Amino acid sequence: QIQRDTSCMCRQSERMTLRMAALPSSSSSSSFPLPLILFLLLLIYMMTAVVVSGLTTTSTTTTPRIAIIGGGAAGLACARIFSRSSNNNNNCIRCVVYEKDNFVGGVWKHQPPPTTTAASEQQHRPMYKGLRTNLPKEIMAFREFPFPKDLDDDDDGASFVTHRQVQRYLERYRETFHLQVQMGQQVQHLKVLSNSKPSCFTPPPPLNGTEDVWPQVELTILDKDATTTRTEIFDAVLIANGHYSLPSAPDIPGLNEFFQGKRIMHSVAYDEPDEFKDQTVLCIGGRASGADIAREIATVAKHVYVSDSAKADGAPQTLEEASGSSSSSSITWVPATQQVLPNGNIQFAKDCPLQAESVDVIMLCTGYDYSMPFIDGQSGLEFSTVQRRVQPLYRQLFHAQYPNVAFIGLPHSVLPFPFFELQAEACYNVWNTKGVANLPGPLERHEAAQCDAVSGGQGKPSGTGRIEDTHYLGNAQWDYCREMAILAGNYDESLEQYLTINKEIYDHAGSRRKGFPGGPDLYRGIRYDRNHEAQSWRVLDKVSIINSQSNQH
């Protein structure tokens, strides 16, 4: 429109100039005096310049600016979705991705631990050397970008891939879609500019007159190479900084006073099992990291206890007892850790008769707390992360008061990469339509946020969840994904089929994964074949796997 208006104005000016230039130059009464002609030409030129300048300025200042905090999987997904959607809809939206490290991939980038024990305790990268995914790549991938077959030398066709393959996948994703990321840029502070002009995404005034103003947001960014800071102003912010950086430590009576072993550590500092050779280790936590790390350590340790709050009874159990096999194992499954006694022994819950003696290392496999250190009391934003609950949030995504601040990837026990995509698509559509896309007013958003905050997690049976489970989805993730797709305006039969296949493979893999914590991970030997065009899948048998490998070579 601006180009058309400018072009039209210029053409009108040219026509008037040509007409006036064609007038006779005689001094007869029917001719214009030369000074008047010059004056009119100058006036036309000035009017044209002012209009063109005004149109150009308006075009520049109203271009929406969106910041994406984090260059991991969630941040890359946001960058891709907004870039793709802007191009498809001919919208000019400028996205800036800030990544504090000098690489993309976030948590998937494995780095060797520091050489000293003291330094390794400060490590904040939970990726350890031997990690393989506990979800198959056939459902881990972004919707429009299946895992390529030539990621690296580790690629043997397995469905459960290494962290190196996932990291390379994310790098390939970025390269394929030409996603620009500003490396070494750490966001230090976020501030809502409530007294400034509103974001260009602010909804129009409703009929009832209730204001719903979404302010612009100011970010303070540290350039880690130049050690300088600067401020930038945005119309919206996507917070995609992950939630695996702040280790969570349970409050266990007597742990610090009476433990007589060598070391208390969090699993974030774990990298490989060799340092635990011939030691007795207690892994507190029996979910993914606790079970996998216990399995690795058990190959070299004297004995490993896995303390799991999900254990139904108080009876200690070995792998032999659980499986009925005669093979020996150095792992014992026990209930939640209750306390460390004055004599240094470990007492477990549910009247467990066993007390762990002479434990050398206690490893806290107890997960992570949410951390957004750039939001504080000076941010002008109602915000809390107490007890692993981020609030107030509408649909665990949009800030209830200012929906132009969104938090990508907070819910857990989900398929992360496709989940990030759907949330980013919902944000794009809501912001692009200025909240018209099924987003209620501020009062309704706050009420919904409060309900979520006391729900104990959508994936938990009603009344059984804890505050810490607020962001747990599990089987509730599929309905949540449908809600995101509806918000994004792209829910259709094809997407429903996509979600259905994801759920089927997810449930199949999950049912094979369950068992004795730290026991054999035979499920990782399963290989899936997914046909995206036919919306079908199957488990490959050994003959199919051998034929597939032969075809690759």
Question: What would you say this structure looks like, in words?
Answer:
The protein has helices at residues 2-21, 34-61, 73-88, 117-120, 137-140, 163-176, 255-258, 288-297, 319-323, 416-432, 442-453, 477-488, 493-513, 542-552; strands at 65-69, 94-98, 185-198, 215-223, 228-234, 236-239, 246-247, 263-266, 280-284, 303-307, 317-318, 331-334, 337-340, 346-348, 355-356, 361-364, 368-369, 393-394, 398-399, 405-407, 528-531, 536-539. With 553 residues, it is of the alpha/beta class. A 6-stranded mixed beta sheet has the order 8-16-9-10-12-11. Strands 2-1-6-20 form a 4-stranded parallel beta sheet, covered by helices on one side. Strands 3-4-5 form a 3-stranded antiparallel beta sheet, with no helix packed on it. α1 packs antiparallel against α2 (34-61). The longest helix is centred in the first third of the chain and has 28 residues, at 34-61. The model is unreliable at 1-30 and 48-61 (pLDDT under 50).
